[in-house]
Amino acid sequence: xxxxxxxVDDTLYDRVEPFKAAYERYFSSRWDLPRRLVYDAFxxxxxxxxxDSMSQKITMREMYIYRIKNAMQDFGAAITDQEALDFQxxxxxxxxxxHFSPGMEETLNLCRKQGLFLGAITNGPSGHQREKYDAxxxxxxxxxxxxxxxxxxGINKPDPEIFxxxxxxxxxxxxxxxxxxxxxxxxxxxxKNAGWHTVWLDRxxxxxSSAFPLADYIVPDGEALRDCIRxxxxxx
Length: 236
Description:
- The protein has helices at 16-26, 35-54, 60-74, 81-95, 104-113, 126-135, 150-153, 160-170, 184-193, 222-233, and strands at residues 3-6, 117-122, 147-149, 177-181, 197-201, 217-219.
- Helix content is 50%, strand content 11%.
- Helix 2 runs antiparallel to helix 3 (60-74) and helix 5 (104-113) packs parallel to helix 10 (222-233).
- Strands 3-2-1-4-5-6 form a 6-stranded parallel beta sheet, with helices on both faces.
- By secondary structure, the protein is an alpha/beta fold.
- 36% of the residues are buried.
- The protein starts with a strand and ends with a helix.
- The chain contains 10 helices and 6 strands; from the N terminus they run E-H-H-H-H-H-E-H-E-H-H-E-H-E-E-H.
């Protein structure tokens, strides 16, 4: 195992935390909705228009309004376009003040100590994703030229081509490369179809390799991921 490449959103950090903080600021006094479920709806509606926003069929402003307005509407809460944009501003501010999920910093330290090649592949606009790179101070482990956003190349996971691009740019050996991500459909499927090994960070828990065979390993959280990497490396 010579290379470990990470997804970013909901892998290195929990994307629901900045969402919860923005919700508390703008909506908690009016609606006491289940934050995790609202976030799940927010994420789902974002995926509905993600490709259109990346191809510029709609503006990023339109995407920001669409995903939170529809998520709130799913729970019977109506908000205006301006309220949606105000929420987005707060959400973005908290995304600039990110914290690693438990176990992730230790995992990165372990990989660096073992001399592994480290990188990241993430879906999203280049500038926005690189702001997260800065907020997490990923440069302590992953050089800036080992950070690939889908907006850099116009190709999104799970298209295996973005993984092929990483192989060419970083001179990786697919059979000696592991990809770690939280999305089975985007991260595990995409990396596996590019010939990589995969570790699925399944935060929901309870899924088995027999039901999801493309995942070489399944872990429920960052601490378990650290232990999985330690075992793969043969560390005591």
